[in-house]
Amino acid sequence: MKKIKEKEIIKTDHKKIIIFFAIVLILLIGIGTFFFFNMNSNKNKFLNLVNKKYDEMIEKFKNPQDNTIGIVKDDESYELGIDLDFNIVADFKDESIMQILTFLDNFKLNLKVGINSQEKESYMLLNSTYKDKEFIAINYYETKNGTYILLPKVFDKYIKAEKTKIPSTTTVSYEDNEYVTRKLKDSLLGGLKESDFSSHVETIKINGKNYNAEKLSLTLNEERIEALLIKVVNDLKNDKKTIELLGDIDSEQMIKDIKKEVVLKENIKFDLFVYQEEIIQSEITNGTKKLFRYQSELNSSKQTLNFYVENIPFITLEIDKISEEKTTYSLTSLGDALTVTGSINNKKEIIENNKVWKDNLDFNFKLNSLEETLDFRMNAIINVDTEKDIVLPTITNYVRETEMTKEDNLILENYLFEKMMLITNKNQK
Q1: What b/e sequence results for 246-265 when a residue is b if at least 16 CB atoms lie within 10 Å of its CB, and e otherwise?
Q2: Contact by Cβ (8 Å): 160, 140
């Protein structure tokens, strides 16, 4: 009896061990299946790629080494200086276009913008010349006591303007803008379903080279687009910080507008072609009609964008980033009916530990159409100084905008009219 009981105990223990390992195995299979179908799903792959590109773009705006725009922190004071100079040779039949181009060829601009973030004060000093003679000069100050404008060659007093009529030069918080943008993106992408996606391997050719790429496709019909937009509206309305930044959102009216405006006869399809975890081609189609295509050969600096009309390339743009400082581009439209070629040279000089720097930007393009040509060159020197002490003057000599006399307004109107006549004068040169 004792031996029989021992055998039964051993059998029972074996059963417990088998059951335990069976449960563990089922759990492992379940977890593996979950990760396979969710972490490696078409939807998840698509979202990971889009979010990666978005984060790369945001990082460029935050890094002073890569970008001059949006690099100053919200709590920093700084002065931004810009000098613009144009060199234009053109032959256009349109007389009004020629007048504007001729004016620009003789026009130079110097602009300084100062922001005192802590005091919430700012200034803009604009000086310009036409044919090396003074054209327009404006001093603009936004202080705690009001907004003031000085036209040095017109009045000897500042004009105290109504703030509701003059746009503020105070910088909008970069973090706030990025928050709203990211909220929009996350809300839109968060509404996508796995059933919206499909994938397969497809061979594509870029610059004569074949790639066996994974094609990830997102297809949306009118009903799905409408649902996504309504979701975005409701998500924004229910987000307290977004409401603080944007103000109250009339979601009911916006939803009514969406239901009225979204009219889509054929599905919209977004295709991403992925090779070695990089997007080398993307396309947008409406039914059978191509709308857009982007191509980038792997490990190449050249990128090509095509915009289609009735499946025919209407505009083709090629961009080649040869180096950190130089980018070339070419644009063709309607075959050879219109061609534009040019380059962008941007030489950055860091003067002091990313606190003071200078950009020398040369931009040029040549345009050839059936009957018209244009050789346009622009040089911009951009100086940024985050170490500068931004101090605004104390302004006591001013007249309120609402208190200006008829004679004052007439002087101002005549001054502006005189400057406009210079731009449209046929005998500028």
Answers
A1: eeebeeeebeeebeeeeeee
A2: no
- CA nearest 135: which of 117, 119, 114, 151? 151
Nearest one of 140, 186, 192, 185 to 166, comparing CA atoms:
140
Using CA atoms, how far apart are residues 253 and 39, in angstroms rounded to an integer? 37
Query: How does DSSP classify residue 367?
Result: E
What DSSP assignment string belongs to 277-315? TEEEEEEEEETTEEEEEEEE-TT-SEEEEEEEETTEEEE
The pLDDT score that the predictor gives to residue 20 is 53
d(CA 301, CA 279): 14
pLDDT the model gives residue 174: 65
User: Residue 164 carries which DSSP code?
Assistant: T
Residue 390: beta bridge partners? none
Which token pair is 360?
Answer: 């020398």
Instruction: Supply φ then ψ for residue 273, to 5 degrees.
Output: -105, 115
Report the predicted TM-score, pTM, of the whole model to 2 decimal places: 0.64
Query: Which residues are CB-contacts of 328 (< 8 A; sequence separation ≥ 6)?
Result: 319, 320, 322, 341, 342, 343, 344
Distance between CA atoms of residues 294 and 53, nearest Å? 14
Residue 203 clears pLDDT 90, i.e. is over it: yes
Q: Which of 167, 159, 169, 110 is nearest to 135 (CA)?
A: 110
Strand-pairing partners, residue 126, are 111, 138
φ, ψ of residue 155 in degrees (nearest 5): -125, 155
Residue 208 phi/psi, 5-degree rounding, is 80, 5
Kindly compute the dihedral angle of the four CA atoms of residues 28, 34, 36, 41, in this order, to the nearest 10 degrees: 180
Distance from C-alpha of 324 to C-alpha of 326, rounded to nearest angstrom: 6
